[in-house]
Write a structure and sequence with these properties.
Layout: H1 5-13, E1 22-25, H2 28-37, E2 43-47, E3 58-59, E4 70-73, H3 76-86, E5 90-92, E6 101-102, E7 106-110, E8 114-125, E9 130-136, H4 143-149, E10 154-159, H5 167-176, H6 181-200, E11 203-214, E12 219-221, E13 224-228, H7 237-240, H8 250-257, E14 261-264, E15 269-273, H9 276-288, E16 295-298, H10 305-317, E17 323-330, H11 335-348, E18 355-361, H12 364-372, E19 378-381, H13 384-398
Parallel strand pairs: 15-17, 17-18, 18-19
Antiparallel strand pairs: 1-7, 2-4, 2-7, 3-5, 5-6, 8-9, 8-11, 9-10, 11-12, 11-13, 14-16
Bound molecules: adenosine-5'-diphosphate and magnesium ion.
Pathway: Carbohydrate metabolism; tricarboxylic acid cycle; succinate from succinyl-CoA (ligase route): step 1/1; One-carbon metabolism; formaldehyde assimilation via serine pathway
GO biological process, one term: succinyl-CoA metabolic process
Keywords: ATP-binding, Ligase, Magnesium, Metal-binding, Nucleotide-binding, Tricarboxylic acid cycle
Length: 399
């Protein structure tokens, strides 16, 4: 689960991290009132969307010459003007895709006089089974370019969670950032605070870009992105309450109600599979046969009729879907039960696109018989390769 910048900053502030003052706003009036509470004379008005690259983004409605979603204002009047420009409009950044995201919230924050911008992020590094802190002296809006052309300017420090954060980790972070004197001390302290926050809140990613050295000699977090391990959210109702569903894909929200793991993709073959590994393999083999999956969908172990029906409905809501491939292994759930679910669901949703079904596992023959005797134009497949070839061919034939 992702949250907004202002929410992440409020959470980090509780761990002692240095954050410039700021106030969220949903309307132009609130933005003005927020600015009045800040010391000024410099303010920054920031679009709050679940995507980065806002500074270099463009508003669809404002034309190519307009500025992006992070604006430096020199007066309250400018805060008001920028808030008017941003609210309700659609910001397109390298991370939003072409559709962009509508800006419904702003964050009005203190303008900081910046001496230098740094980069610092934390993530769970599955390769080493440790937490990693990734730091660079080259922070700011071009970090992707730095990673691409000068990767040696990025340092990774790993921390064994069994050992926990030790002072030498803090020193390594401060050293990699080439900081000396008091700033070096601040960086060590910050690294420890971030580690504590990351673990305590079950984060899976925390990115600070930029972390800045202010003209006053303070290390401050100017931008941060934070995401949480969804499997641990039950332990953090306060964090779960920060979820902003308007930032999420409606089909993905609907899927989560039925405990279906669904992620929309750009292709035209809808997939309904049980098990994430099998779902990945199914997507791969569709690509191998020359088409593209319209989604990732894992219906999970207990795929009953209700879940299968919900899954069909979610897949079919996507206007790009020209055919569906069902690939289910009947282990816990027997194939005949799944077949009954598929038949009932297909009738229920008035299925109008080709459907190829591959079943394997317990009671597979009974399952296949149910599909064959259903009177529905379901194409049965024998194995994964056969299933992929058949659905690709069916979709081409229908086109
Ligand atoms: P994004 O990463 O989405 O583009 P940022 O919050 O990182 O958004 O803002 C982009 C740039 O704007 C930063 O790299 C920084 O140079 C500048 N900036 C952001 N917040 C402030 C602030 N409070 N004071 C001064 N400059 C800021
Ligand atoms: Mg940033």
């Amino acid at each position: 689960m992702n949250i907004h910048e202002y929410q992440a900053k409020e959470l980090l502030a509780k761990y002692g991290v240095g954050i410039p003052a700021g106030i969220p706003a949903l309307t132009v009036e609130e933005a003005v009132a927020a600015a009045k509470q800040l010391p000024g004379p410099l303010y920054v008005v920031k679009a709050q969307i679940h995507a980065g690259g806002r500074g270099k983004g463009k508003f669809k409605e404002l034309g190519p010459d307009a500025k992006g979603g992070v604006r430096l204002a020199k007066s309250i009047e400018e805060v008001e003007a920028f808030a008017k420009e941003m609210l309700g409009n659609t910001l397109v950044t390298i991370q939003t895709g072409e559709a962009g995201k509508q800006v419904n919230r702003l964050y009005v924050t203190d303008g900081v006089d910046i001496d230098k911008e740094y980069y610092l992020s934390m993530l769970v590094d599955r390769a080493t089974g440790r937490l990693a802190m990734v730091v660079s002296t080259e922070g700011g809006m071009d970090i992707e370019e730095v990673a691409h052309s000068t990767p040696e300017k990025i340092t990774t420090i790993t921390i064994d969670p069994a050992e926990g954060f030790k002072p030498h980790h803090g020193r390594a972070v401060a050293f990699a950032l080439k900081l000396t004197g008091d700033l070096n001390k601040q960086a060590q302290k910050l690294a420890g605070q971030l580690y504590e926050a990351f673990v305590a809140m079950d984060c899976d990613m925390l990115e600070i870009n930029p972390l800045v050295e202010s003209k006053g000699g303070e290390l401050l977090v100017l931008d941060t992105k934070m995401s949480f391990d969804s499997n641990a959210l039950f332990r953090h109702p306060d964090i779960f309450a920060l979820r902003d569903e308007t930032e999420e894909d409606p089909a993905e929200i609907e899927a989560s109600k039925y405990d279906l793991a669904y992620i929309k993709l750009d292709g035209d073959i809808g997939c309904m599979v049980n098990g994430a590994g099998l779902a990945m393999a199914t997507m791969d083999i569709i690509k191998l046969n020359g088409s593209f999956p319209a989604n990732f969908l894992d219906v999970g172990g207990g795929a009953n009729k209700e879940k299968v029906t919900a899954a069909f409905k979610i897949i079919l809501k996507d206007p790009n879907v020209k055919g569906i491939l069902v690939n289910i292994f009947g282990g816990i759930m027997k194939c005949d039960v799944i077949a009954e679910g598929i038949v009932a669901a297909a009738k229920d949703v008035n299925l109008s696109v080709p459907l190829v079904v591959r079943l394997e596992g317990t009671n597979v023959q009974q399952g296949k018989d149910i599909l064959a005797n259903s009177g529905l134009p379901i194409v049965a497949a024998n194995d994964l390769g056969d299933a992929a070839q058949k659905i690709v061919a069916e979709v081409k034939k229908a086109a």
